[in-house]
Amino acid sequence: MSFVPSPIPFAADSGPSRRFCVAPMMDWTTPHFRYLARVLSRRALLYTEMVTTGALIHGDTERFLRHDPSEYPLALQLGGSHAGELAHCAKLAQQFGFDEVNLNVGCPSDRVQNNMIGACLMGHPDKVAEGVAAMIAATDLPVTVKHRIGINGRESWDELCEFIETVAAAGCKTFIVHARIAILEGLSPKENRDIPPLKYDWVYRLKQAYPHLEIIINGGIKTFEDCHEHLAHTDGVMLGREAYHNPWLLADVDTEFFGEPAPVTSRHDALRAMFPFIQQELDRGVYLTHMTRHIMGLFLGQPGGRQFRRHLSENANKPGSGLEVVEQALAKVREPELITES
Ligand SMILES: Cc1cc2nc3c(=O)[nH]c(=O)nc-3n(C[C@H](O)[C@H](O)[C@H](O)COP(=O)(O)O)c2cc1C
């Protein structure tokens, strides 16, 4: 694989590289998945699941912000719209060691809409700007926004530009753009990730219109070929579902996008590198199945991969299951021959 530098330099001058990002995904980008992602790539920027300001302020803050230092670079994604609460949570992000704090303006779920969280905020650029300004004032971390190209009823190019300009005027320099609108009534969150058509050209146009802003493109990106195509027009790519379902893809990210050696050379080594972490979590009382559900994709398409997954599904949820279940599952997939030079 060859290293093809982006023709466009990064626009933002602070924070971690966003050339290749793994998207925030509720219930998926948990600390356990992120640990695997980090074993596979040192350079991909990882995002937490969204955590609402209400949960952080009134709930178990430590639990929501818990992460392993090996996960860095790591961005915390917040859901909220109250400027004071966002500022408070941005401060917490810094105290807990995150590298970036990101505001969710893309989630279409009814549950969050009722609390003025997520994609519905695209209809309120001033409110987003107020929140972003408060976050910027409260922290030294880069403050970024992840959003859609519009919402139903507010889906014109001019309205998108108005959103970007209003939020950029509040100090936001980095926009992560899911290249489809969200339809706020009648579609489930899952449908909202597939049905509204992708309009990559709109994201490219944003970069042309606002070259001083860092524009990261998201939505439907599956291969490195796709990534390079997008990197010719934007500053970075963000992959969600493909990175989760086929995490081994991440093992080539450091070489492909950063010209650095890959941290691991086999899926077996990657999983073995997780053993001490899995044991540490088991010792803390975490159920094995809460961890193994995030490593199911590691042997996707490999001989024995199905048996690996079946062994984990059938055994990891049994009471008292430990690392031996992962070792047994691993033994079901053939280890690549070690290539030795004579
Ligand atoms: C299970 C799941 C949960 C998600 N949760 C979040 C979330 O918490 N915050 C967010 O901004 N986007 C969330 N998303 C959207 C993704 O970040 C991403 O924008 C979307 O999946 C499109 O990218 P993809 O086609 O590469 O998956 C979620 C997606 C999935 C599949």
TrEMBL record:
The keyword NADP applies. Keywords: Flavoprotein, FMN, NADP, Nucleotide-binding, Oxidoreductase, RNA-binding, tRNA processing, tRNA-binding. Gene3D superfamilies: 1.20.120.1460, Aldolase class I. Pfam families: Dus (PF01207). InterPro entries: Aldolase_TIM, DUS-like_FMN-bd, DUS_fam, DusA, tRNA_hU_synthase_CS. Residues 22-329 form the DUS-like FMN-binding domain. The keyword Nucleotide-binding applies. It comes from Marinobacter excellens LAMA 842. This is tRNA-dihydrouridine(20/20a) synthase. Belongs to the dus family. Its EC number is 1.3.1.91. The active site is at residue 107. FMN binds at residues 24-26, 77, 146, 178, 218-220, 240-241.
